[in-house]
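Morning F.,

Quick status update on the modeling queue. The single chain you submitted on Monday has been processed. Sequence for confirmation:
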Amino acid sequence: MASILMLLVVAGCGNTKDNNQSKLQTQVQDSKIVGAYKSDDDYNETDDGTIQPSYWYFKKDGKLLYCEPQVDSSDPNSDTDFWYGDAYRGTWKALGDSKYQLKFHDVYDDDYYTIKAKLDGKKLITYSTPKSAKYEWNEFTNKKIDMTYSDYIDMFDNAKKSDLEYIKENGYYEPDSADSNEDVTDPKTIGVLLLASTHGGFDDLDGDDLEYMIMEKPNTYQIGLGTKSSTLNYTVDGDKVTYTDGALDYSQDSAKTVSIKKLVDEYYSSSDDKSTIDDLVADANVTDFSNQ
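Structure tokens below.
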């Protein structure tokens, strides 16, 4: 019997190694999306016919940037002298077969998008959002270009400044004055906010290391970095979240309760913080024990 168990363990380890090697090979293959892309001019016309190109940059760490730099109007009879820029950022995830999921949003407002994309040689096709999507994104064809990350960042920063000027001109919120009273009810987001609070911020958090678990007991969740000592067990009740710490063996004597509004005020009230938390939430690994 012991011999059979040993064989099963060895076989299991072998499969794990093969799976890890396969996963690594997929990641290497998928890195071909990394780099800069420019949309075709057919998709870049403004209302007065001015061409305003848009650019993507995909980083190896799964982050993406997108921008439309400000351009002067090419129509002397236009109602505007120039067209403001836009700047977006988010994450990309490989789906296999040269297909990708892109999640991104404007750095200063609430325009969030989740779209699919496909790489065909040096051509990247970004597909439209479903008709039911809250924010619509149209299909574009983009071509890979030779541009360094440093040059792209210079262009992105200028587009971001123009984006902010447009918001100021139209009376929208500036980056750090977003509504801190926004209701957050998603248990996963609440878990990431809770973990950030126990770490004194999110600088030490990496989405690829985050483990989010929906437990068998109703309204019970866990969030951590892959070890018991880093994991919090928590429940949500209205504006309150109560948690125990794995480092203390989840002792009820050490249970703490904190206001979700307080977590939002501290870690989810600015556009930059929202972007960071949303990226962490999107990247976290999810395990659902609720149906077991």
